[in-house]
Amino acid sequence: MAGIPGVPAVTDDTFAAQVLAAEGPVLVDFTADWCPPCRMMAPVLADIAREEAHRLTVVSLDVDRNPQTQAAYGVLSMPTLMVFRGGEPVRSVVGARAKARLLRELDDVL
Fold this sequence. Notes:
Blueprint: E1 9-10, H1 15-20, E2 26-31, H2 36-51, E3 57-62, H3 67-72, E4 80-85, E5 88-94, H4 99-106
Keywords: Disulfide bond, Electron transport, Redox-active center, Transport
GO molecular function, one term: protein-disulfide reductase activity
Domain Thioredoxin: 1-110
């Protein structure tokens, strides 16, 4: 997967600096090239990254290339969307969903 426009990729090596040490909330998209629902979520996440940039950072992590981070957070299904705040996961949702529903599910942790 070429990645999601406007959504930076993180790796096992950069996860701590870009996600755990971030100032505000970070939405991590745990994704994989072989995952059709992940591809469905790409435009949704690109929209959210652009529209919610004032209160949320969105990043993507390829689980096949970054197995340490996937294992550390027990991610078994793709896509898993996990919000981190202050270095800790505060919300996790699994599976593709519409943008409005995702924003509703995340609203109280943003």
